[in-house]
Specification:
Number of domains: 1
Order of helices and strands: HHHHHHHHHHHHHEEHHHH
Number of strands: 2
Helix content: 55-70%
Bound molecules: zinc ion
Oligomer: single chain
CATH architecture: Orthogonal Bundle
């Protein structure tokens, strides 16, 4: 009975989300803001009844703040590497990098030094750190932190599921394919995700967090070749004036990949972007659920409040200010 209620709510939400204006992307990076928000929002509908009403009540917060970690890259030293891992930096000549990179942080640092690990990205470890923080927030029954860490965990899980977040050639800059990062994770998602099937099932408990997270990164990385090769193949078949188009965004005209080119790319990828998004959604739901269980299954009705504290609001406002003022990303200034 409860299940079918969840399903109806989910359907209503789907209809709403696809017609809602406020999901129009305003940027051209990172699953696009559009994709990140959508993943966080959809993950709510994978949760068991004991968690669902709390998360549903705060779905706007979880959606809106799915992108805070990207904004924070402008204000916080050390934020940038949390969004990616250039795993292919560690192995060349056909060697599988996952056979040389230790999964455990201490072993990885010992093998490569912390400077190197930080320089080439730490997303698989940071997802685990965030699950730890969220677990503690549940243990402490800390309303602010439960919401904030839930939203932010979604961001890093989403990033870990994006193929181009796992390679040095993250924007095709090494192969003459500059722009492919935003093409795959923003342009295509915005154009086609309304047709994606987001019935991903119910969140399940993650027994082995370390392996779970590395598995996501491995799947992402093994898709990198297709992401790049299909675009290259298509580009040779397309004259530039058909590959690109001009789009009006507010009062600006931007050059972007044409619909026709994008559609053909999407067809060649054969559901890859949809699969990676679905994986992001169910992984996030399962990690929220796991943190809650490991945090002692607190009664969320008792923790629930109307709104986050003034203190947290202020903190978020400061980050937004730094983001809106622009300036340099602290760390590598690319689409990660
Ligand atoms: Zn990111």
């Amino acid at each position: 009975m409860k299940r079918s209620l969840v399903l109806i709510t989910f359907l209503a939400f789907l209809f709403w989300s696809f017609t809602a204006k406020n999901e129009k992307s305003t940027t051209n990076n990172m699953w696009g803001f559009f994709g990140h928000k959508k993943i966080n929002r959809l993950a709510v509908f994978t949760l068991p009844p004991e968690m669902f009403s709390f998360y549903k009540e705060h779905i706007e917060f979880l959606t809106e703040h799915a992108v805070d970690p990207d904004k924070r890259r402008y204000a916080t030293e050390g934020e940038a590497p949390r969004h990616y891992i250039d795993i292919d930096h560690y192995a060349h000549g056909g060697v599988d990098p996952f056979t040389v990179m230790p999964q455990k942080w201490n072993e990885a640092v010992e093998k490569y030094t912390e400077d190197t690990i930080q320089a080439y990205g730490i997303v698989p470890w940071h997802v685990q750190v965030m699950v730890g923080r969220l677990t503690k927030a549940f243990k402490d029954q800390n309303f602010d932190k439960i919401l904030r860490y839930s939203a932010e965990l979604g961001h890093y899980v989403g990033d870990a599921c994006v193929p181009l977040h796992t390679t040095e050639n993250y924007n095709g800059q090494m192969t003459g394919q500059r722009g492919i990062h935003g093409f795959w994770e923003s342009r295509c998602v915005e154009l086609f995700s309304e047709d994606y099937d987001f019935f991903v099932g119910t969140a399940t408990y993650v027994e082995d967090l370390e392996n779970f997270v590395w598995k996501r990164v491995r799947e992402s990385h093994y898709a990198v070749d297709s992401v790049l090769n299909f675009e290259r193949k298509l580009t040779t078949a397309y004259p530039t004036d058909r590959k690109y188009a001009y789009d009006n965004r507010g009062n600006r005209t931007i050059k972007t990949y044409s619909r026709e080119f994008s559609k053909e790319y999407e067809t060649m990828l054969d559901g890859m972007i949809e699969r990676r998004m679905r994986t992001s959604v169910i992984s996030l739901g399962s990690l929220w659920y796991t943190a809650w269980l490991n945090g002692g299954k607190p009664d969320l009705n008792k923790i629930n409040q109307k709104d986050i504290s003034e203190e947290l609001k202020k903190e978020i406002e400061e980050e937004n200010k730094a983001f809106e003022q622009g300036g340099n990303i602290k760390g590598r200034s690319h689409d990660h």
